[in-house]
Design a protein that fits this description.
The complex is a heterodimer. In chain A, a hairpin with a 2-residue loop joins β1 and β2. In chain A, 36% of the residues lie in helices and 29% in strands. Chain B has two domains: 201 residues, no CATH class; 183 residues, no CATH class. The chains are: A alpha/beta, B alpha+beta.
């Protein structure tokens, strides 16, 4: 059996607020394979976003083993963590996904620009993706000139532009109406099937859970249930 | 990418950015203009000081300058002047007699500062006829023993052009001597004290009255452009102090230390003003950029999450400050240049501040018109200082932005 894309063993995360210790994760064991379209579900405060942040090297675990794309992400220096994210992870956040002063096109090509891709290379990747997600003709619009759904689509293009190992999506539909949510999720599912990109969501949204091939339910900082479609 | 992001970020808060740019722009422009006016005024004061003292370097009998004693003379002053002209770097050596005297008519007597000069040689330093308001030049009059008097003194003595006055002074032998002079004209400088005490005559006339036709009290030396005054003074000390008469050779800085002190103090105040201004601007920028970083914590978190290293986020903040500074310095320089050209063209008479009778360290500056002069090195230093100060003041904010933990930053405001 090949190495899973994500391997978490006994992962813990403790936040300290003065004297107070908050145990956000209490020993998470989880593996995610290449090409999965999976969701972390559970009530608020169960640790979904925290786990997603650890997988994306946005934060460091307090304990346990966590490797992503074959790399131990528990001991990364800040600069290395940024490089790791750039090389392996695409993000779609709930809100404030785009850089406000950049156009839709510039936001979409941002990660490629960070990688040092040429103008032509960026254009070759970004233009078809933006067309594919229905944003042709909106390239020059600033984020505030786009609807919430359109902004999330730009974020999806940006996440996919670098062909990452995994796209982490934290409540991507939380600020969208049901039609826009369904459209966005269908698009992500299609891209998952077309490109084979792994998607991992943290969500409450039933629309996401309906489409996910696997739902990992969390409770009190632990994996409570792991349901495969 | 960073400059483009920085430029756009600056204009997200247009009003705030414009206020900041204005603060830097006007502080910088004011500093440059103040330096331009200050440098020109100081140069004029120095020129006036050199004129008042009698040259860039002064040669006297030892002890004369501090006492102005009439018996401390250079007995062979013309030869001293001639030898001085032979020293490398000397443009002209001007012999003159300078001593206190009394001028009297039937209507009274007045104490005067008598200056006896060769008008043609003296022109290398100053045209003494510049303030002639009535009568003839000393070098053009046919009068025997001509004398030019300050206008107020002439009024007090009720004399007129062509009239006779008696000059009383201590002769070279120490004995009181009296001689008849003819009034060639009147001088008006506009300074009451000077116009009450000024008297010019020729060396020939003075020698006729005082005796001995080669003795002077001072040789004023003018240096050639680019010559180091201190070095030249040393050369003169070595060259002129050999023939038994103890001479003192003073540079103008030694001769008018009060003026030098005033200029140094004035410069110090300008630097203090600049330092205060820099501190105020630095705090304003530091505060503004700290606020801006706080407002954009989520955005910095997003950039970091997408793979922009923390160090580059810090650089982004510094580039924003640098762009702001470049705009401010560009506009400020244009304003300063316009101010410099305008002030240099039209000038600001010092008299408009009520300084009609202003004398500084024995130098009349009341008729001075302040203009502007660019000292390139100073303008460069000021520009670099403004840029370093403004960009430097954002370093704390930049470090703060660079050290944000993305997960925490992304939670900000949630």
């Amino acid at each position: 059996m090949s190495e899973p894309l994500i391997r978490a063993e006994g992962v813990t995360k403790v936040f300290r607020q003065g004297e107070l210790e908050v145990h956000a994760l209490r020993g998470v064991d989880l593996t995610v394979g290449v090409g999965e379209f999976s969701a972390l579900a559970g009530p608020s405060g169960c640790g979904k976003t925290t786990l997603l942040n650890l997988i994306g090297a946005l934060d460091e675990p307090s304990g346990g083993v966590l490797s992503v794309a074959g790399q131990d992400v528990t001991q990364l220096a800040r600069g290395d963590a940024a490089d790791f994210r750039l090389d392996h992870v695409g993000f779609v956040f709930q809100a404030y996904n785009l850089v406000p002063v950049l156009t839709a096109y510039e936001n979409a090509e941002f990660t490629l620009l960070l990688r040092g891709a040429s103008r032509e290379e960026r254009r070759t990747v970004v233009e078809p993706l933006l067309e594919r997600v229905g944003l042709g003709g909106l390239f020059e619009r600033k984020p505030h000139e786009l609807s919430g759904g359109q902004q999330q689509r730009v974020a999806v293009v940006r996440a996919l532009a670098t062909s990452p190992s995994i796209v982490l999506a934290d409540e991507p539909t939380a600020n969208l109406d049901s039609t826009a949510s369904a459209g966005l999720l269908d698009l992500m599912l299609e891209l998952n099937q077309e490109l084979g990109t792994t998607f991992l969501f943290a969500t409450h949204d039933e629309l996401v859970l309906e489409r996910a091939k696997r739902v990992v339910r969390m409770l009190d900082g632990r994996v409570d249930e792991d349901i495969w479609d | 990418m960073l400059p483009r992001l920085a430029w756009r970020n600056l204009w997200r808060q247009r009003t705030r950015t414009l206020i900041l740019i204005s603060a830097v722009t006007f502080s910088y422009a004011l500093l440059l203009v103040a330096m331009g006016v200050g440098d020109d005024s100081h140069q004029q004061m120095l020129d006036a000081a050199v004129e008042g003292a009698g040259g860039d370097v002064l040669v006297h009998r030892d002890g004369y300058w501090s006492t102005l004693a009439a018996d401390l003379v250079l007995p062979d002053g013309l030869a001293v002047a001639e030898r001085a002209r032979g020293v490398e770097g000397v443009a002209e050596a001007i012999p003159r007699i300078r001593l206190p005297a009394l001028v009297s008519t039937a209507d009274g007597a007045r104490a005067v500062d008598l200056l006896a000069v060769d008008p043609l040689v003296e022109e290398a330093l100053v045209d003494i006829h510049e303030h002639l308001v009535e009568g003839e030049r000393l070098d053009a009059t046919a009068l025997e023993s001509p004398i030019l008097l300050g206008i107020r003194m002439a009024e007090d003595l009720e004399t007129e052009v062509g009239g006779r006055v008696v000059l009383t002074a201590s002769g070279w032998d120490g004995e009181l001597t009296r001689a008849l002079f003819r009034v060639a004209g009147f001088l008006e400088t506009g300074i009451r004290e000077v116009d009450e005490t000024l008297a010019y005559t020729t060396l020939q006339a003075a020698w006729g009255a005082l005796g001995d036709s080669a003795t002077v009290t001072q040789v004023g030396v003018l240096v050639q452009e680019g010559t180091d005054v201190e070095v030249l003074a040393e050369a003169l000390r070595e060259g002129l102090g050999r023939d038994g008469v103890p001479v003192e050779v003073l540079t103008w800085r030694q001769a008018v230390p009060e003026m030098v002190g005033f200029i140094e103090t004035d410069d110090a105040f300008l630097y203090i003003y600049a330092a205060v201004m820099f501190v105020v601007v630095a705090f304003a920028i530091a505060n503004t950029f700290l606020v801006a970083v706080t407002e954009r914590v989520r955005e910095f978190g997003l950039l970091n999450a997408l793979g922009l290293r923390g160090r580059r986020i810090g650089v982004l903040v510094l580039v924003e400050t640098a762009v702001l500074t470049l705009v401010a310095v560009g506009v400020g320089f244009a304003i300063a240049l316009a101010g410099h050209l305008a002030i240099d063209h039209w000038g600001i008479p010092i008299a408009i501040w009520g300084m009609e009778d202003m004398e500084l360290a024995g130098v009349n500056i009341s008729d001075m018109v302040m203009r502007s002069q660019i000292t390139t090195s100073k303008w460069i230093v000021a520009t670099v200082a403004v840029m370093v100060t403004t960009v430097g003041s954002a370093v704390f904010a930049a470090v703060k932005a660079a050290r944000l933990v993305p997960a925490e930053a992304m939670r900000f405001y949630e």
